[in-house]
Write a structure and sequence with these properties.
The complex is a heterodimer of chains A (about 270) and B (about 240). Chain A is mainly α. Chain A contains ten helices and two strands. In chain A, strands 1-2 form a two-stranded antiparallel ribbon. In chain A, α2 runs antiparallel to α9 and α4 packs antiparallel against α5. Chain A is globular and about 70 Å long. Chain B is mostly helical. In chain B, about 35% of the residues are buried. Chain B contains ten helices and two strands, in the order ββαααααααααα. In chain B, a hairpin with a 2-residue loop joins β1 and β2. The chains are: A mainly alpha (about 270), B mainly alpha (about 240). Chains A and B meet through loops of A and α6 and α10 of B.
């Protein structure tokens, strides 16, 4: 007999193991490509790991399986999926642009810290951050060769990116709805953080609240789906065939086990 | 700029819900808002506090007598000053000195309960003439009951207040109707829920929108704000059990 908490913990552990195995299978070998694809391999591999980390983080934290928190993670996963697919349209150029943009952004942050020091801010921590940032940048490229890009790294809107990858619905029905949560827009806040007062003397005002909800396991399924979509792209690009159950298959199996454990009768007390 | 040099703009999607929308830079403007003169008037914010006194009288005297008392009082008030919008609470409060000139003692006595209630519940000036044997807590109870009953502009009670005012305006010659356009007020009172009542309700709301937005008195906004602010203080929030 397992408790409900144990059942959920085991459910999350099964999923995380599945995610971890799928990631490891695809990152254990260096993918040489034509010998000049270091940037591409690095980016795709790291993005896959990032997607796995997000899915794991969600799966193993049942209190986040609600409309308050889960969309924050899922929007990030959708964003990654779009980026991943868009890079694959011109992998060599776009993977490098993706790296360059990140290096440039870090360089700008470092410059802002330097300005802080130069204007009299005293702080050993800030000096250490500057050193660490520069070391990280220069481990990849001398900072004098790193451009700072104030715009978006892709130069196009996310909507346009979705059009270009041939999946406009991904933008309309996944990216946009979850963005409302990320940006604290009224169409999220009004549903999850506002409560209608029914007193007519109060003229139908709303009062801030944190809507209490049970964990919604469908959010975990979404995480599995967005991880699986990235895995599929990865496998297509590298012509990789996996023998492992996919995240969705893993979810289906784990949810069945969870369901049985959840609904099992407690042992009778003697 | 040549056609080639122009940035291509996305066309307006042709989904039914966006029918007729016009693009203005990054916004899609619905047809009704594309008229530059469009302004919104909140019935509950700006109209209801001005006419709530009628609701109190309709409840106190009953529908038939209430309509009769309100319409006769308004008719007499317009008799002494035609241009004043007497149906507004703020106008009656602001011109208290004129009331004895227009209304007989019995008339004043008939409408006194509403203004005494509002004076005690809201402590609004200009209502010293209105007295009642009730105390402030009873006045607040009456307000509570009246607001709950009359606040919804789509429901029969609110429309009964509006109908009373439109009827008063019509018999005083303040509002004129072309042949065949008189709202079927009777249907609102006696046949609520029917198609003819629905049609009459639309007509009455439209009539009220024809005069209310434009006739605001000096203290109207201050009164409306005061009314709602005090209502918040008078009672606590109420929620459905399911957390809505």
């Amino acid at each position: 007999m397992t408790t409900e908490i144990e059942a959920v913990t085991q459910f999350a552990a099964r999923l995380c193991q599945n995610f971890s195995e799928n990631l490891e299978e695809r990152t254990i070998d260096f993918r040489a490509g034509d010998g000049f694809e270091t940037g591409v391999n690095t980016v795709l591999s790291a993005l896959l790991a990032r997607q796995s980390a997000l899915a794991m983080g969600l799966a193993e934290s049942p209190p986040t399986w609600s409309g308050h928190i889960a969309p924050l993670i899922l929007r990030s996963m959708i964003d990654l999926l779009i980026t991943f697919r868009w890079i694959l349209l011109e992998p060599r150029q776009r993977a490098q642009e993706y790296i360059n943009y990140g290096l440039g952004t870090e360089k700008l942050l470092t410059a802002n810290y330097q300005e802080k020091i130069e204007t009299g801010y005293e702080g050993a921590d800030v000096r250490r951050i500057i050193e660490a940032n520069l070391a990280w940048i220069e481990s990849q490229q001398f900072q004098m060769f790193v451009a700072v890009n104030f715009g978006s790294w892709t130069g196009v809107s996310v909507r346009k990116m979705c059009d270009e990858i041939g999946d406009p619905d991904l933008y309309k029905f996944s990216y946009v709805p979850f963005s409302a949560c990320v940006h604290n827009m009224w169409n999220h806040v009004g549903k999850w953080n506002a409560r209608l007062c029914r007193n007519p003397l109060h003229k139908q005002h709303m009062v801030g609240t944190v809507v209490e909800v049970w964990p919604i396991v469908d959010f975990v399924f979404r995480a599995c789906k967005y991880l699986e979509l990235v895995l599929t792209e990865f496998d297509r690009y590298y012509d990789h065939t996996s023998t492992l159950p996919s995240p969705i298959a893993g979810f289906n199996s784990a949810i069945e086990t969870l369901s049985k454990a959840w609904n099992s009768d407690p042992p009778e007390e003697s | 700029m040549t056609q080639r040099g122009k940035k291509r703009r996305r066309s307006v999607p042709s989904y039914p819900i966006l029918d007729g929308h016009i693009r203005n830079k990054k916004k899609l403007i619905p047809p009704i808002l594309s008229f530059s003169e469009t302004t919104f008037i909140s019935s509950i914010d700006l109209i209801f506090p001005e006419i709530v006194w009628v609701g109190i009288l309709l409840d106190w005297h009953g529908l038939r007598d209430g309509i009769d008392i309100v319409s006769k009082a308004l008719q007499k008030l317009w008799g002494i000053r035609e241009k004043t919008n007497w149906y507004r609470f703020t106008e009656i409060a602001a011109h208290a000195a004129d009331l004895p000139q227009a209304l007989e003692e019995d008339d004043l006595s008939d409408i006194e309960i509403a203004f005494a209630t509002l004076r005690m519940a809201y402590d609004w000036p200009g209502l010293d003439w209105a007295n009642s044997h009730e105390d402030a807590s009873e006045a607040q109870k009456r307000i509570n009951t009246t607001v709950r009953k009359y606040w919804n502009r789509f429901e029969q009670p609110y429309l009964t207040i509006l109908s009373t005012l439109i009827y008063s305006m019509a018999i005083s010659g303040r509002m004129k109707f072309a042949k065949g356009t008189v709202p079927d007020i009777e249907a609102i009172v006696s046949d609520w829920g029917s198609d003819r009542a629905e049609k009459a309700a639309c007509s009455v709301r439209a009539c009220s929108m024809a005069f209310f937005p434009h006739d605001t008195s000096e203290n109207a906004e201050a009164w409306c704000k005061h009314f709602w602010r005090r209502n918040y203080q008078m009672s606590g929030c109420e929620y459905h059990d399911n957390g809505d």
